[in-house]
Structures are given as C-alpha cells and as structure tokens.
Design brief:
With 455 residues, the chain is of the alpha+beta class. The protein folds into 4 domains: 86 residues, Uridine Diphospho-n-acetylenolpyruvylglucosamine Reductase, domain 2, CATH 3.30.43; 119 residues, Uridine Diphospho-n-acetylenolpyruvylglucosamine Reductase, domain 3, CATH 3.30.465.10; 106 residues, 2-Layer Sandwich (Alpha-Beta Plaits); 87 residues, 2-Layer Sandwich (Alpha-Beta Plaits). 37% of the residues lie in helices and 20% in strands. Strands 12, 13, 14, 15, 16, 17, 18 and 19 form an 8-stranded antiparallel sheet that branches. A hairpin with a 4-residue loop joins strand 5 and strand 6. Helix 8 packs across helix 10 and helix 8 runs antiparallel to helix 13. The longest helix has 20 residues. The structure holds flavin-adenine dinucleotide. Flavin-adenine dinucleotide (FAD) binds next to strand 3, helix 5 and strand 10. The site of flavin-adenine dinucleotide has 36 residues, from strand 3, helix 5 and strand 10.
C-alpha cells in the first residue's frame, strides 16, 4: 500500500492531510529567509500510540519525519523537508496532571508554554522558562530546543525543569526517561540527551516538569544609556554585584526605535541602549535589589533610570522587549541570530556585531538576554532583495565567528537546525561531533527523524 494510504488507514479520520492549501501552512517556520521543502503529508496524532504508529509506518516506507510543535523555530528546525511527513503535535495539547504536593505538572507536547503557568498559578506555582514567544511556542518545541527566555538569568533553562519524558523512538518503540523524584541518578541521563536534540533522536509525547512557587510580585526597572559601552559596563557591574535579578534584557537604539514605531510606547529614541531589569524576590528585598541595580546603572553612566512595582506598568515594559521580534517582522525579512558569550565579554560582542554589519553594509538590530550573555543580533533585509540577503548572511556568519572567538557559542537557545551546521564542529570539536553522530546512528540508523538537519 502507498505510504499515505497506509498512514491514513492506521490513524483516525482527519488525522492525515494532503490538501496542498493546508500543507502550505505547515511548510514554514519563523525562519522566513529559508525556502522550505514540500511535505508528502501532515499527520495530526492525538495519542502516543498514534505517534508510534505513524513513525513505524514512515520507517517501513523510508519516509523522513519532521516533528513539529507550534512552528516558531528560528533556525529552520521545523520547516518541511521534501517528501517527508510533517508530524504535528498540536492536537496533543492536554495538561494531564498538576501535582501540587510535589510541585510538578504533566503535559502533552502541544501545550503552549504560557498556558502552563496560567494553569498552575491557582496552585501558587509557575513554570519559569519563558521564551519571548511563550504565547505561541509549544512545550514539546521548548524541550526539543532546550529553550531559554527572559528569566533564565535567575531560573535557568528548559533542561533545568524536565523531570521525566515519554519518547517515541525512530523504530516506533516508546521509552520513558527520568524520575518523579527530585534526586535520581540511576543510569545515564537520557532525559538530558533528548532535551535540545531538536527532533533528531525521538519524538517527545509526554513531559513531567518541575514547578517553582510563584513569586508574589515584581519590581521592574528601565535604564537608558548614551552608548552601548556604558550599557555593557552596567551589565558587567550588576553581574559582579551578585544581585539575584530575575531578568536583565538589553535593546540597542535601532531596536528601541522600531518597537516605539510599532507600539508608540514613548521610549527614549535617542538613547544608544535600553536595559530592562526585574526582581521577583519577596518584598521588601525586590525593591532593594532593583534600587541597587539602578544605582549601578547610574554609576556606569545611565542617562535615565526609573522603576515601578505596578504589575501593569511592569508588563508594559516587558512588552517592549517581547515586541522586538514582531516589530521587525513588520518591516522586512528578519534574519535572527542567537549567540552567547561569557557575560564579561558582552561589550566586545556588541562592538563585533556593529563591525560585522558595517563590513557588509547590513542593517542590524541587537537585543537579548544581557543577564546570561545571550544576544539576538537581527539583520533586516527588504523582502525579495537577494543582494541584501546575501550581504546580511555574510554578516550573520561573521557574528558567529566573533562569538566563538570571544569564547562563546553559536546558539544560546534557538538551536542549530538547518542554518548553523557548518559552524558546529568549530564550536564543539571533531571528536565531540563524532560522538553525537554515533548516538544519532544508534537511535535512528535510517536517519528518518528530522532528516537533513545538523546531525
Ligand atoms: C518572536 C520570537 C521570539 C522568540 N523568543 C525566543 C526566546 O526568548 N527563547 C527561545 O529559546 N526561543 C525563542 N524563540 C524561538 C522558538 O519560539 C523556540 O525555539 C521554541 O522552543 C520553538 O517551539 P515550537 O513549539 O514553535 O517548536 P517548532 O518550531 O515547531 O519546532 C522546533 C524544533 O523542535 C522539534 N520538535 C517540536 N516538537 C517536538 C516534539 N514533541 N518532539 C521532538 N521534537 C520536537 C522540531 O522538529 C524542531 O526541530 C522565539 C521565536 C520567535 C518567533
């Protein structure tokens, strides 16, 4: 029987789609400058058994599988591949259990990140990793990319919260990894192996996550700086101070201006950089922490600082940062980069980014997670301008090299996907990459899971 017919017969009615108009919506992710392939079909399973059946049938026919969450990848990780099956987890979107006594939640992979904290907040609990895309990215995608976010500076990344996974392997078998306990060291850490494996080693179908007690409130501070250097100095001073801030984000002037154009927030458009800082410590500590951070910003040369304890004003300030992506997408084709450096080297990275853009005549907008050294220099290209895109991609590569030369990484949170494979060996070394490939061959000998990506 042909592949699609066999798949459709095995899954419930409506779970396999070949309508080209529907498939078009599942070809792309948010890496808009790459051209995706054409999938043979899209499948929408609603259970682990259905995922396993789809994987077994695809394997038997030698058809590749692209696991897909909400399609917000910025590294081409969930784009369709020619002739492969796009396997969307969007219909597996149930919150299965909130275990208040053990501060944990069990969810299916299609649940949106933001919905987890919304569901657990009545229990006084929250799920900390909060990508700027939290309203439109799934927890399955977060696991697969080991997503970070705005409050990683205090709380860490997705990996730090994954207790247990259920995974469908490339042969259609199902395994469980991890523990319900806080401690547990029996055997190799397979949970850690699947987190960040970008859909290349298995398909995550169920997740148990650790939660934290929800903070009682926040104090938020904004500071504007006359130069990028003074903003970098403030970040270095705050980091060295040991303050336990829950968020420290930076936006350069170019980004501030596009966000202000987009949302009319009355931001200081003449400042070279804006720092957003938040503390969610218990009162009165959070106010003290933010005031201390403001004093350090003033000492570094800030032109203006202000803080608020008002939740709505705080949220509006954070919104300025979250709108950076959508505001840029409105203006053209953004080529998002995502590099990390040791925090003390942020000022050097900011300088290297500006030089790389100037060298290639590209427009760059830099914003990111200053608290953990993870920056998103984003090159903006007029839609359809191939020459500008080629120049921007040369600057993109130079920025990756600059991050490596500063002792950093080619990706802090978005992943390698389709776009950074040529730089991976340079970062991890040939021996390390050979081990990664050996793991891939062991778990997926026919190479059907997310074919053609970095492994
Ligand atoms: C405006 C904007 C802001 C963003 N901000 C951040 C940020 O602050 N921090 C951050 O980390 N990321 C950020 N991202 C990137 C993106 O949202 C994350 O990478 C997110 O984790 C992807 O989730 P998704 O559900 O959209 O996954 P998708 O894009 O659908 O997939 C991402 C990868 O995960 C794999 N995958 C998906 N589901 C599964 C599964 N169940 N099992 C196995 N593999 C799977 C896919 O094959 C693919 O390789 C941002 C994106 C945008 C557009």
């Amino acid at each position: 029987m042909p592949f699609v017919d066999e798949l459709a017969a095995a899954l419930p009615s409506g779970a396999v789609v070949t309508d080209p108009d529907v498939l078009e919506g599942y070809r792309h992710d948010r890496t808009s400058w790459l051209t995706p392939g054409h999938p043979v079909a899209a499948a929408f399973p609603t259970s682990t058994a259905e995922v396993a059946a789809a994987v077994r049938i695809a394997g038997a026919h030698g058809v590749g599988i692209v696991p897909r969450g909400a399609g917000s990848s910025l590294c081409g990780g969930s784009q369709a591949v020619d002739g492969a099956l796009t396997l969307s987890l969007e219909r597996m979107d149930r919150i299965l259990d909130i275990d208040g006594a053990n501060q944990a939640v069990t969810v299916e992979p299609g649940v949106m990140n933001a919905d987890i904290s919304a569901a657990t907040s009545p229990h006084g609990l929250f799920y900390p990793p909060d990508p700027a895309s939290k309203a439109y990215c799934s927890i399955g995608g977060n696991i697969a990319t080991n997503a970070g976010g705005l409050c990683c500076v205090k709380y860490g990344v997705t990996r730090d919260y994954v207790q247990r996974l259920e995974v469908v392997l490339a042969d259609g078998s199902v395994i469980e990894t991890g523990h319900d306990t806080i401690k547990g060291v029996a055997g190799l850490d397979l949970t850690g192996l699947f987190v960040g494996s970008e859909g290349t080693l298995g398909i995550v179908t169920r997740i148990r996550l650790r939660l934290r007690p929800a903070p009682s409130g926040t104090s938020t501070m904004v500071a504007f700086f006359p130069t990028l250097g003074t903003a970098g100095d403030a970040v270095a001073a705050i980091t060295a101070s040991g303050l336990q801030l829950s968020l420290m984000e930076i936006m350069d002037r170019a980004t501030v201006v596009v966000v202000d154009d987009h949302a009319r927030m009355g931001l200081d458009r003449d400042a070279a950089a804006l720092l957003l800082i938040q503390s969610d410590s218990p009162e009165p500590l959070r106010r003290v922490e933010v005031e201390r951070a403001a004093a350090l910003c003033d000492e570094a040369g800030a032109s203006y600082t202000a803080f608020t304890d008002d939740p709505e004003e705080s949220e509006a300030l954070l919104q300025a940062r979250r709108l950076a992506g959508p505001a840029l997408e409105e203006l053209g084709e953004p080529i998002w980069d995502d590099v990390g450096v040791p925090r003390s080297r942020i000022p050097e990275l900011l300088g290297a980014i500006e030089k790389a853009a100037d060298r290639h005549g590209a427009r760059v907008f830099t914003f990111g997670h200053a608290g953990d050294g993870n920056m998103h220099p984003t090159l903006l290209v007029p839609r359809g301008d191939d020459d500008a895109r080629a120049a921007a991609l040369r600057a993109f590569d130079d920025i990756l090299v600059a991050a490596l030369e500063l002792g950093g990484t080619i990706t802090g949170e978005h992943g390698v996907g389709s776009i950074k494979a040529p730089f991976l060996e340079r970062e991890v070394g040939a021996g390390n990459l050979a081990v990664q490939r050996a793991i891939k061959r062991t778990l997926d000998p026919a190479g059907i899971l997310n074919p053609g990506r970095w492994l």
